[in-house]
Amino acid sequence: MQTATNITELRSMIKALRQTASTVGFVPTMGALHEGHLSLVRQSRAECPATLVSIFVNPTQFGPDEDLAAYPRTIEEDLRLLDELGVDLVYLPSEAEMYPPGFSTYIQPPAVADGLEGEHRPGHFRGVATVVLKLFQVTGADVAYFGQKDYQQSLVIRHMVRDLNLPVDIRVCPIVRDTDGLALSSRNVYLSDEQRTIALSLYHTLSAARELVLEGCRDGQVVMEQMRKSLMDAGVTRIEYAVVADAESLEIQDNLVAPPAVLLIAAYVGSTRLIDNLLLED
Ligand code: AMP
Questions:
Q1: Which of 1, 27, 59, 157 is most buried (CB neighbours < 10 A)?
Q2: CB atoms < 10 A from the CB of 72, how many?
Q3: Is 146 a pocket residue for ligand 1 (Cβ < 6 Å)?
Q4: Closest ligand 1 atom, CA of 37?
Q5: Would the CB of 273 count as within 6 Å of ligand 1?
Q6: CA of residue 144 to ligand 1 center, whole Å
Q7: Burial of 259 (0-12, 13-18, 19+ CB in 10 A)
Q8: Hey, which residues are catalytic here?
Q9: Cβ of 131: how many Cβ atoms within 10 Å?
C-alpha cells in the first residue's frame, strides 16, 4: 500500500495505478476508521480494480463550537486496517495543502443542504462540498463511496455531482451497526457505558417509528411526536431533530402518502452529538 502526502506525489501514483486499473474507486474519510468505513472500502475493492482512501479531518466542516481539536485521530491503526484490506493508495493531505494561505473559493451547497444538519450546523455542508469537490479534482476518481449513515450528506454530494456534471459515480452503502443496533461512528468513543445505552435509543426509536408506519400510521406528526417522546424517555439530553422526510428532497412529511421516506434523528447524549436514520421503502 502506498501513501501520498502531497498532490504531486498523489497524481503520479494514480497515473501509475491507471496503467493497469481501468477504474479507480475512492473512499473519503476523516480517519478513526471503524467497520462502517471499512465496508465502503470493501465495496470499492469488490467493484474497482484500484482503491484509494483519503484521511483528512476537514476543518471547514466543523463549527467553531464543535469537536475539531478533540476529533479522534488513530492514523497508525487506520493505515494498518487499510493495508490489511488491500487498499492501493492512501492520501493524507496536510491542512496547509488543502487550504493554503489565501484560499477563498467555496462551494455553495445544493438546496437539499438547507434543513436538518444544514440548519443545526451552519456552514457544515459548505465545508463538506468544498473538500469533496477538491478531493474529486485531485484524485480524478471514477467511483466514490459514501455511507447512508450521513444520509443528508450523501444527497448533497449526489446533487452537487449532478449539478456540476462531475465525472464520478456516487455509491451510497448501508449503515453498519453494532450487534445491538448502535450505528458505528468515530464519535462513539466519546460515550461512557451509561451513555452508550442511552445512545441505543436512537436506533430503537427509528425501529419503533418504522413499525408504527408499517402498522398503517400515515400521520407524520404522530410519528414524529412518538419519536421525540421515545428519545426523551430514554434520557436523551437534547434532540435537534427527529423527523420523517421525503427520501429525495428531505421535505418534512406531515402525511406519509408518497414513499419512499426517511426517518432522521440528530440528538445529543451528554455532550456527544449523534445522528442516525432509517429508510422507509415502499
Ligand atoms: P467520516 O470519517 O465520518 O467522514 O465518514 C467517512 C464515510 O464513512 C462517510 O461516507 C460516512 O457516511 C461513512 N460512514 C460513517 N459511519 C458509517 C457507518 N456506520 N456505516 C456506513 N458508513 C459509514
A1: 27
A2: 15
A3: yes
A4: 8
A5: no
A6: 12
A7: middle
A8: 37
A9: 23
